[in-house]
Amino acid sequence: MFFLLSNEMSGKGGERVYFKINSLYWIFIALVLLIIRYAIVYNMTMRYHHISKDV
Fold it and tell me: Which residues cross the membrane (predicted)?
């Protein structure tokens, strides 16, 4: 699949396609990192509330 993409990129306007794929890839990574960060913060706050309730 990657070979096919690289073949298409060698044609006219290939750089534009590559840039589009690259930007989508980075947006996806940013979203995943945000979700993970929020999950960790949420987990910590829930744990903190749970401990404070127990005490």
Answer: 24-44
Structural domain that includes position 45: 2-54
Q: Write out the two tokens for 23.
A: 């930007």
Lookup: tokens for 10: 């060698």
Q: How many Cα atoms within 13 Å fall on the side-chain side of residue 9?
A: 14
pTM higher than the cut 0.85: no
- Cβ atoms of 40 and 46 within 8 Å: the answer is no
Q: Count structural domains, the chain.
A: 1
pLDDT in tens, the chain (55 residues): 455 555 555 555 556 666 677 788 889 999 999 999 999 999 888 887 776 666 5
Three-state DSSP at 10 gives: coil
